[in-house]
Amino acid sequence: MTLIQWSREKVDFLELFTSVYDSKAIKSIGGKKFNKKEFFGLLTWFFNIQIPNLENSLQSMRNRKISQAPYLTELQELFVNYINR
Asked: With the C-alpha atoms ordered 32, 15, 11, 82, is the resulting torsion angle positive or negative?
C-alpha cells in the first residue's frame, strides 16, 4: 500500500474539506453522527497533516481578506480545463 500526504497549504486542506463536510457528502457507516472535529481527525490522519488548533484555523480562514475560496476556485478551473480537453 502506498502512503499519501497532503502537499498543499493547510488552509487549502481546510477549505476543501470544510466544503465537503458542510455538503454532507460523507456519512458514517451505520448512520452514527459525527462532528467536524471527528471528521477532520480522520482526514488529518489519512493525509498525514497536522492542524494543531482546528477551531482557530477555521476562524482564520473565515477572516481572510483575499478571495474567500481561492483553492476551490483553482479546483473548479482545473476541472473545467479537464472537461474541455
From this structure: positive
Report helix, strand or coil for 23: helix
Residues near 54 by Cβ (< 8 Å), separated by ≥ 6? Answer: 36, 37, 40
pLDDT, one tens digit per residue, over 26-48 is: 999 988 889 999 999 999 999 99
**Can you say how many angstroms the Cα of residue 28 is from the centroid of all Cα atoms in its chain?**
17
Residue 17 near residue 39, CB atoms below 8 Å: yes
Pull the grid cell for residue 42.
480522520
Long-range contact pairs involving 73-82 (C-beta distance under 8 Å, separation at least 24): 75/16
Q: Distance between CA atoms of 1 and 38, rounded to whole angstroms? A: 24
